């Protein structure tokens, strides 16, 4: 049995019709997602501008050109070779990495107790945690500075910013508590029936199920520490060896106020770790943030 081949005239007629249908489908998709496309361009174009400017020459960076005539990748090498820049990188990694680990480790037990334990004063404790989220850091900065600088003699270091994170963070506790509420109590009760203590139940049962919430808290804390300018300015401004990238970038900008290409290259190097971390962990981050609002 043979299959009839459509005439060449029909194939030619189907070609323009198919192209027209695809074009209409594309235009319909653009019309439906126009607001999303506009919002995406609104956020992306500044990053593109910074990246393109960082690859220009010293003279072209002072013009109105939007694209580089020649690509100067050596601008990044010049920034990295700037005295102190790698030290700022090391300090930022220490501050963000150690601070994130301390906040996560110290906040999980408190959030677990507020979410799954029934004890007198539980609601008052949660209210106190929420009230700490409303307290601006500028309110307590003077007594905190006097304590760390005069009593502990840690002025000029990042330890006044890192050590308090070992005692938990109000926002991290609240976010983790909201996520742990979504975990059914039946799993915890089954673990207790099998003879698990509270610590073992937390480690073996709760934490594996709470990975998205923990990832969200860790990312929030990492971004907060990495971008922190106020804290290093207060405690480490008199010691360049303890500066972070966020604070050192201001000094770099002052030293290269006419070299916009180098300033933009330094900005890209400061932003790159945050962008990469978010893109690699965005699935867990979005899931963790979304599920925290499922149950009150």
Question: Explain this structure to me?
Answer:
The chain is mainly alpha-helical. Helices cover 72% and strands 0% of the residues. It is built from 14 helices and no strands. The radius of gyration is 27 Å and the shape is flat. The relative contact order is 0.13. The model has no long low-confidence stretch (mean pLDDT 84).
**Integer-rounded radius of gyration:** 27 Å
Mean pLDDT comes to: 84
The total beta strand count reads 0
Main sheet makeup: none
Structural class: mainly alpha
Spatial separation of the terminal alpha carbons: 67 Å
Low-confidence stretches: none
> Which bin fits the share of residues in helices?
over 70%
Short synopsis of the structure:
This protein is an all-alpha fold. 72% of the residues lie in helices and 0% in strands.
Secondary-structure blueprint:
Elements: H1 8-32, H2 34-54, H3 74-80, H4 85-116, H5 122-133, H6 137-151, H7 159-162, H8 170-180, H9 185-193, H10 198-209, H11 211-226, H12 230-235, H13 245-255, H14 260-291
Helix pairs in contact: 2-14, 3-14, 4-8, 4-11, 5-8, 8-11, 9-10, 11-14, 13-14
